[in-house]
Specification:
Layout: H1 4-9, H2 13-22, H3 33-44, H4 47-60, H5 63-73, E1 77-79, H6 80-87, H7 95-101, H8 110-115, E2 121-125, E3 132-136, E4 169-170, H9 175-189, E5 194-195, E6 198-199, H10 201-208, H11 219-235, E7 239-242, E8 245-248, H12 250-257, H13 261-273, H14 280-283, E9 287-289, H15 299-310, E10 319-320, H16 321-331, E11 347-349, H17 362-375, H18 377-380, E12 384-387, E13 396-399, H19 401-407, E14 422-424, E15 429-432, H20 438-445, E16 449-452, E17 457-460, H21 463-471, H22 476-486, E18 487-490, H23 492-509
Length: 510
């Protein structure tokens, strides 16, 4: 079946604008038609966008569900003549007639309703007597459409909830990955001293000021995210100890920076997934693991069981957290206790110091762990989208496009747009667009001074930062060439000053 981008490529410009408007997509930043198609396709195939559009179609007419289910049963496509007998045809119009009649405002059939909202396409195949038009579901939209109730997985029969309003959603982002890049730059340029109890508090405070997540989390989550970040950096071999100072290990760091952003996300997720030393249960804020008796949990086995359960979820569908936990308690309550022993583990509530024993305390232990994994590592590492609860509502969660690819079979890789450009201003500041690679940001860290990390990364080129770079073999001419290559707008004054720096510095050093 064609992809969404292949479907859109044959549409007139007015259809691209209509689809963008109906689906709340943004394509104004595209410089060419090809870029507009790519931008629109990426947004139309976003799991939450698909789910919300599908729900809107059901609100318009229940027949929309029957039409989609029919196509799903037919493996995503069928001859238009057959489809139209039950759900109507898509009237064919050229650009002028489309603009004049605006059929998307008054669709005459279920087929037109789905067509003008980007959920189905119309194609042509065959030759001679076998030539025919057909209706299809784009291949990168199909995985995010809700499965019929009869196809709910036996292992976790939890029903999806209605999609939340867009204003409440907190889509999985790259904040944790960006913080990994920040940690690499910080250790390269600054001191990260070690004490008997861990990194020096003053150095940690300076690092925290550069990170993304302090803007959205409380102290408990901040400390846990920072602990996980340092744990994964150490597990991936990025850090080494020299006396009482942490330094970068060059080969593992450069190997990570040279990966694509998709590969970097997966590396961080897998480093957590396979870590036997990161104990999620004992990191859960409400809980305290007491070293008493002979009990021990198996964090690696527990994590794999939890990820297997989350892999049952329909990609792109939304679920109420309380409903999901209730189903897990009913179907697989012993996901972290293979022997079903709820009496010999020494776990207590961190606030009341009450020991939590017996199956009746399942929600206080297993439930607390699952809630922490949902709002913590699974969200931080881009596997889950979340939706803030409204008044009296429950937290909603959904497998992100990345989480679906990692945890479910046959999920497609998400569409991703790369915007690897800088802006260099007259005041020698460099602003990095959100999509700038970690490798290029690290290159900027080597010759410029950090200024801010949120909402965009900003650096300042100074005499001191250039001198520091020169001591490491990075010349002003090399910096100028790099900026010319990467900058959408580069100040000629800045470029000229960088090219003069080498001769001026040589005179000063003489």
């Amino acid at each position: 079946m064609p992809t969404a981008a292949q479907m859109l490529a044959g549409y007139p410009d007015i259809m691209l604008q209509v689809l963008a408007e109906l689906r709340g997509a943004l394509i104004d930043g595209a410089d060419t038609r090809e870029q507009a198609v790519e931008l629109l396709a990426a947004q139309l195939t976003d799991p939450t966008s698909v789910q919300m559009a599908y729900q809107e179609m059901l609100d318009y007419t229940p027949q929309a569900e029957a039409a989609i289910n029919l196509l799903l049963r037919e493996h995503g496509e069928m001859p238009e003549a057959q489809f139209s007998r039950e759900f109507g045809a898509v009237r064919q119009m050229g650009p002028a007639k489309l603009e004049r009649e605006s059929p998307w405002l008054y669709p005459e059939s279920v087929a037109e309703l789905l067509y003008y909202n980007g959920l189905i396409g119309r194609g042509f195949k065959g030759a001679g007597q076998n030539a025919h038009t057909y209706i299809y579901l784009p291949s990168d939209i199909t995985p995010w459409l809700p499965r019929p109730q009869s196809e709910l997985p036996v292992g976790l029969p939890v029903k999806p909830a209605p999609p939340p309003p867009a204003a409440r959603t907190l889509p999985a982002d790259d904040a944790f990955l960006l913080d990994a890049g920040t940690l690499i730059g910080f250790v390269y340029n600054e001191r990260l001293r070690l004490t008997a109890s861990g990194p020096h508090p003053e150095d940690i405070d300076r690092l925290v000021k550069r990170l993304q997540f302090p803007f959205a989390n409380g102290d408990a989550d901040l400390n846990l995210r920072l602990a996980l970040l340092l744990h994964l950096a150490n597990r991936l071999g990025w850090l080494r100890r020299e006396g009482d100072v942490v330094q970068l290990t060059q080969n593992p760091v450069m190997a990570f920076l040279d990966k694509t952003r998709a590969e970097q996300r997966r590396i961080l997720f897998d480093a957590w997934r396979t870590s036997p030393d990161w104990n999620d249960l004992c990191r859960t804020p409400e809980l305290e693991c007491v070293e008493a008796g002979l009990w021990q949990n198996a964090p690696l086995q527990t994590r794999e069981n939890v990820l297997r359960l989350f892999g049952y979820l329909q990609p792109g569908a939304w679920y109420a957290q309380s409903e999901l936990l209730n189903v897990i308690r009913t179907t697989e309550p012993d996901f972290q206790r293979p022997t079903g022993d709820y009496d010999t583990w020494y776990i207590r509530n961190s606030s009341t110091q009450e020991f939590l024993k017996g199956f009746e305390r399942w929600d206080a232990v297993e439930g607390a762990l699952l809630r922490f994994l949902i709002r913590g590592p699974l969200s931080w590492l881009s596997a889950l989208d979340l939706a803030e609860p409204g008044a009296g509502d429950d937290l909603l969660l959904s497998l992100s496009a990345w989480g679906a690819q990692w945890l479910t079979p046959d999920a497609p890789a998400p569409n991703e747009q790369v915007h690897n450009h800088f802006i260099v201003k007259e005041d020698f500041t460099i602003t990095l667009e959100p999509g700038v690679s970690l490798a290029d940001r690290f290159r900027v860290e080597r010759f410029a001074q950090w200024q801010q990390s949120y909402p965009t990364f900003v650096y300042q080129i100074t005499q001191r930062s250039l001198k520091r770079a020169a001591e490491r073999g990075i010349t002003g001419a090399r910096v100028a060439r790099f900026l010319r290559d990467r900058c959408r707008t580069a100040s000629p004054r800045v470029i000229a000053a960088l090219e003069r720096f080498d001769s001026v510095d040589a005179v000063r050093s003489a």
